[in-house]
Amino acid sequence: MNTEDTMNRYVIAVYVENKFGVLARVSSLFMRRGFNIDSLTVGETDDPAFSRITVTLRGDDHTCEQIINQLKKLHNVKAVKRLENGKAVERELMLIKIINTPATRNEIMAATEIFRAKIIDYKTESMCVEVTGEPSKINAFIDVVQPLGIIEMCRTGVVALERGSNIMEKE
User: Fold this and answer.
1) Whole-prediction pTM value?
2) In the chain, which ranges are E strands?
3) Residue 164: HSE in the Cβ half-sphere, 13 Å Cα cutoff
4) C-alpha–C-alpha distance, residues 128 and 160, integer Å
5) What is the distance between the alpha carbons of residues 151 and 95, in angstroms, rounded to a whole number?
6) Cα distance between residue 139 and residue 123, in whole Å
7) For 89-159, which CATH superfamily applies?
8) How far apart are alpha carbons 108 and 144 in whole angstroms?
9) Which numeric CATH code is attached to 3-83?
10) pLDDT tens, residue by residue, 104-154
11) Does the N-terminal or the C-terminal CB of the chain have fewer CB atoms within 10 Å?
């Protein structure tokens, strides 16, 4: 059994001051501690003075707690919260370029429709498709089109918010 199969997946939200070097300090904390980041997204919040970083990683509860405690100690970090599985809305964006031939065209278009994706660029030799949704949906789309020939793809990483009226408390 692969060690990664026994690790839990965690989503951590980090509310930081929108200042030079903050992202570097956050990401270097993971490097110094030997923790791998599965995905990392950053964006300005409703207040341009602050950004929200969403990090996904695999590990155990101890590892996750250790990361959270270390993040809280960083300068410019205002809040850190682990988003519980099932209690957060997660989304990701992927752009994927697929080989387009007369033999694969209908299958690409059918997959695009089934996954509620969008064809955003159409050429006789390739199609570029935009897919948004939960990471499992993105992975399932990749599995479907893999045999058709993926030319290139990029993913944004997860963005997440807690469901309901729960918010991140800022210090």
Assistant:
1) 0.85
2) 8-17, 37-44, 50-59, 77-83, 88-99, 118-122, 126-133, 150-155, 159-162
3) 5
4) 25
5) 11
6) 24
7) ACT-like. Chain A, domain 2 (3.30.70.1150)
8) 9
9) 3.30.70.260
10) 999 999 999 999 999 999 999 999 999 999 999 999 999 999 999 999 999
11) N
